[in-house]
């Protein structure tokens, strides 16, 4: 169902402290991995976005006791081999993370599991997950040659460890293989073309899983059990922080501090690129919790210049490309972002969305090929009415674009609930 339209007005500056929601990737994993332990885990600063709540719902249907109490979640695990057969189809909603990770988990169970999702998720390709799981011995069937939902995982299969060279760096695919590898008869090795976010490896290591990493090769040993910590503290999400980082950088007389943001090095590509563009960004109060690094991010307005990027840095900023495109529109010169074809199979075709909608605000600024995004900075910006394609990241990027330019009206503000439920409460206080 289409959400409500919203008009965002231009801002004069952005100042003060901002707290963004808990990290989406870590919130998903904290619930899934705690469900496989045999104790109660308290998860603090959990993201109560629609995607993470889809994971909670699925784990409950696997028979796990998950209780939500304000910003905290309490998970009492059933043990590594204690999941129960769901009585009904599991609905992953809009969440690719939920679906892909749980495909890996379901592949190792002794019962059948069927997954579905919303209209967007039903169109997203799952063959890249199913292929390595099938090589491990899993039996998985779906629509369109086992590529699309609904998908059924046929249980009771013995999994064997494999060596798998990933054609594309993907934390979701990697995590699905790792979850299946916990149950395999022998070790599994995953070779990435470039490092993707490593929250799964870090958290499972904290749960006692033996994982070895050499270069871009990750070796996972089968597990007999998982030993959970009493508490997991989720850092705030750098993907959500990216919008305020960009807005502060491109808006005159701005100075903000975004508190306690996760700065895992596999996620900080957005900071590296913005610094190369001339953004004034500083990390303060750097600290570590549960193997994850966090910091306060201080940003002041800056004059930006264009860059050309691609290759290994792209997996470190793939979700932040829409926000980065906004920064590029205010930079001097032409920015080229290579190797982002993955954006065409996200919640929407994000390259298409950027070209179609961002150009309404800044005409002729955005071009795309099959895999690259080109942004011509410094062109005139006007008020525009834009479509979000029901994509939370497009909606938030359009909102900061309009706030930094001459305003914007978006057709579906409610889609931000996927990852940042109170995003517009903050926006409307500042426009």
Query: Which CATH C-level class of the largest domain is it?
Result: Alpha Beta
CATH superfamily of the largest domain: Enolpyruvate transferase domain
Give the overall pLDDT as a whole number: 96
N- to C-terminal distance? 27 Å
Low-confidence segments: none
Strand adjacency order, main sheet: 2-15-17-16
Q: Shape from CA axes?
A: globular
How helix-rich are the residues, as a percent range?
25-40%
Number of helices: 14
CATH names the topology of the largest domain as: UDP-n-acetylglucosamine1-carboxyvinyl-transferase, Chain
Q: Give the count of structural domains.
A: 2
Topology readout:
Blueprint: E1 6-8, E2 15-18, H1 24-35, E3 40-44, H2 50-61, E4 65-69, E5 72-76, E6 90-91, H3 96-106, E7 113-116, H4 119-123, H5 127-135, E8 139-142, H6 143-146, E9 148-154, E10 163-165, H7 171-181, E11 188-191, H8 199-206, E12 211-214, E13 217-220, E14 231-233, H9 238-250, E15 255-262, H10 269-276, E16 280-289, E17 292-300, E18 308-309, H11 321-329, E19 334-337, H12 350-361, E20 366-368, E21 373-376, E22 384-386, H13 392-404, E23 408-410, H14 423-429
Parallel strand pairs: 2-15, 3-14, 6-7, 10-11, 18-19, 22-23
Antiparallel strand pairs: 1-23, 3-5, 4-5, 7-9, 8-9, 11-13, 12-13, 15-17, 16-17, 19-21, 20-21
Helix pairs in contact: 1-2, 1-8, 2-3, 3-7, 5-7, 9-11, 9-13, 11-13, 12-13
């Amino acid at each position: 169902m289409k959400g409500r339209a919203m008009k965002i007005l231009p801002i004069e500056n952005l100042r003060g402290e901002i707290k963004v929601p808990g990290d989406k990737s870590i919130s998903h994993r904290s619930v899934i991995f705690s469900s496989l332990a045999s104790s109660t885990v308290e998860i603090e600063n959990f993201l109560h976005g629609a995607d993470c709540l889809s994971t909670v719902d699925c784990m409950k249907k696997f028979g796990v006791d998950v209780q939500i109490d304000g910003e905290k979640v309490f998970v009492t695990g059933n043990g590594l081999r204690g999941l129960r057969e769901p009585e009904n189809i599991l609905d992953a909603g809009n969440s690719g993370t939920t679906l892909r990770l749980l495909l890996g988990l379901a592949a190792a169970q002794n019962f059948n599991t069927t997954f579905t999702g919303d209209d967007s998720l039903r169109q997203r390709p799952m063959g890249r997950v199913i292929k390595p799981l099938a090589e491990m011995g899993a039996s998985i069937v779906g629509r369109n040659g086992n590529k699309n939902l609904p998908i059924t995982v046929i249980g009771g299969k013995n999994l064997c460890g494999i060596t798998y060279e990933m054609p594309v760096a993907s934390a979701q695919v990697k995590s699905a293989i790792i979850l299946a590898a916990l149950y395999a008869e022998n070790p599994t090795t995953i070779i990435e073309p470039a490092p993707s976010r490593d929250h799964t490896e870090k958290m499972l290591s904290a749960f006692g899983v033996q994982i070895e990493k050499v270069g871009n090769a990750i070796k996972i040993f089968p597990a007999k059990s998982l030993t959970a910590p009493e508490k997991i503290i989720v850092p705030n999400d750098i993907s959500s922080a990216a919008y305020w980082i960009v807005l502060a950088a491109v808006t005159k007389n701005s100075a903000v501090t975004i508190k306690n943001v996760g700065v895992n090095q596999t996620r900080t590509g957005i900071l590296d690129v913005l610094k190369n563009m001339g953004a004034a960004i500083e990390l303060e109060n750097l600290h570590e919790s549960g193997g994850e690094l966090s910091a306060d991010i201080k940003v002041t307005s800056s004059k930006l210049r264009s860059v050309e990027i691609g290759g290994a840095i792209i997996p470190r900023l793939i979700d932040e490309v829409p926000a980065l495109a906004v920064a590029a529109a205010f930079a001097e010169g032409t920015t080229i972002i290579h190797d982002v074809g993955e954006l065409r199979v996200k919640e929407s075709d994000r390259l298409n969305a950027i070209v179609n909608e961002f150009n309404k605000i800044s005409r002729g600024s955005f071009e795309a090929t099959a895999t690259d995004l080109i942004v011509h900075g410094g062109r005139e910006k006007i008020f525009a009415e834009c479509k979000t394609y029901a994509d939370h990241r497009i909606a938030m990027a359009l909102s900061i674009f309009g706030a930094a330019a001459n305003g914007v009206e978006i057709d579906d503000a409610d889609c931000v609930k996927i990852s940042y439920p109170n995003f517009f409460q903050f926006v409307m206080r500042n426009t």
